[in-house]
Amino acid sequence: MTTGLGAEQKAQFERDGFLPVRGLLRPEEVESIKTALAGYLRTGLHSLTQGQPPETDTVQVNGVLIQLEPAVLSDKVKVSEPLYAARKIWNLHGNDALVTSIIRDQRIISMATDILGDEVWFFADKALLKPPHIGVEKPWHQDIPYFPFEPKEPYLHVAVWIALDEATVENGCMQYIPGSHRWGNLTTSTTWTETVSHLAVDTDRIDTSQAVLVEAQPGDVVLHDGMVLHYSAPNRSSKPRWAFVLDYISTRARFMGEGEPPYPKISR
Ligand SMILES: O=C(O)CCC(=O)C(=O)O
Question: How far is the CA of 138 from the centre of ligand 1 (A)?
Fold first, then answer.
């Protein structure tokens, strides 16, 4: 399937700033991403199996970076299973062959380019893991304020959020405020969840009761705009919630760094 979005899906994305696309990846594709991620966790967090948490917040395995959950880093909670100790794994592009190929998968690129135009930069990958009981929240935020691109406007960035596990209300599925991608840049502060810093919006200025909670099955995808307000709750359940997120930026955006943007360009 390389067809991209239908007219109704495109209209829904433009109206809401997010769009669930069900069953995009096959079960075996989901499993192979999980196997690759598990390999980095088993290598990078091996010391946990001997009762020793790593001393630093972030561990590196062949260029791939792993960030611990704050409760594991502080030793507040003893976790001996490397698969359930990390918050985030990133920088897989160029370091992991399987993930590098998924980033260029035409099923994904055709959807991203339907929104962003025919040419995009691949900006970043990140697996967000929310382990059982200790996975922290991701506060309400917009994505583009994190990125070195201007203007901070809709339809210049799309995140492709891929469920690797079932994501539910209990384990921290994604939440979005429909239409908020057209409300401008609401990013006002930096906030902290223990040792993890976030750019955040002033929640007094938004009505979070309007949030739509998007539960998902493994292989489902949710596309979201870089300006839409979104959030995910702490994982209070006994089930992990692994997701894998790919960020694409339209080449219509202005890069604010030095020289040419150091990101691969991908065409439809
Ligand atoms: O997966 C999550 O919990 C948060 C994802 C997110 O906020 C993002 O991709 O910008």
Answer: 7
